What we know:
The N and C termini lie far apart (56 Å). Helix 11 (219-228) links the parallel strand 6 and strand 7. 37% of the residues lie in helices and 14% in strands. The protein has helices spanning 2-14, 29-37, 41-46, 53-58, 80-94, 109-118, 138-142, 160-169, 182-187, 195-203, 219-228, 247-256, 282-287; strands at residues 67-71, 100-104, 124-128, 150-154, 175-179, 209-211, 234-236, 259-261, 288-291, 295-298. The chain is built from 13 helices and 10 strands. Helix 5 (80-94) packs parallel to helix 6 (109-118), helix 8 (160-169) runs parallel beside helix 10 and helix 10 runs parallel beside helix 11. The chain is α/β, with parallel strands linked by helices. The longest helix has 15 residues, at 80-94.
Amino acid sequence: MANEHENLEESSSSIVAPPPSPPWVELPWEVTMDILRRPGAIEIVESAQRVWNTWWKVCHNPAMWSVVDLKNEGDNFKMPWVLDKICRIAVDRSQGQLLKISIDNFGSIDMINYIAERSSQLRHLRVVKCYSNLVGGWAAAAKNFPLLEELHIYFTLITKDDIESVGRYCPLLKSFTLNATEYGNLIFPPSQCNDQALAIAKSMPKLRHLALLQNSLTNKGLLAILDGCSLLESLDLRCCCCVDLEGDLERRCMQQIVDLKRPGDSTHDYEFHSENQRRPSSDEDDDICYDYDYGLSLGDSREYDYDYDRL
């Protein structure tokens, strides 16, 4: 019996205790959410949620997806269909709690409508370099954004009718950015250079902040905005080369606008400074294919191992 007891003690002492849980597993959910949000939605779906069971649960909590940032750039560049799938996953997981979403370098009108139909609480929408054709599609989406307060559009086509639809269906809109750069100048003839400005003046009376970088508006369009958007506090007119701020118009702007950026002011602090300074070279044009039904696509046919339908 003594030998058996000694053997049991020896065997029990030889058992290796399981390693302690990593310290981040014990963090409060709110702290874990804050940490996991920082890499962005792409990293969450493709990697972070797979690290630990606790993280998997956190990454499926609707509160995790109230803010979604989908930047498709640099070393993390993905094909458009991949970003489309990840975006839909994020929207689905939010369960209607999505408040802010940023879409960079991909997108389609179908995806915008997918967001709109499931995100009636949305307050902030940013669309950057969406080369798919969104023209004429904003009206249907805007109807589902009654609480939208901020809309920021960069390097993406939008017409005066689209702008009027947004203004009509988004009565709480306070901040609007429009930087279509060369696309606007290519699509709209000089006779229509004030169409976007007039649409803003007509349909967005509650605007506090307006940025019209490299827009084709003239003094006529600017005056209409000052008349129609009397609550404006900030106005960015950088690179609007058809605006001549002199005399009465300049005095009007100085009196009405607290934060005024003039057409000739520096763009060095602007996020897309380099984009506004150059056109793509002919060699770059050869490398990029603009497919208006599918979005930006590259010649590189990358393959992905992820089964996004099962995440």
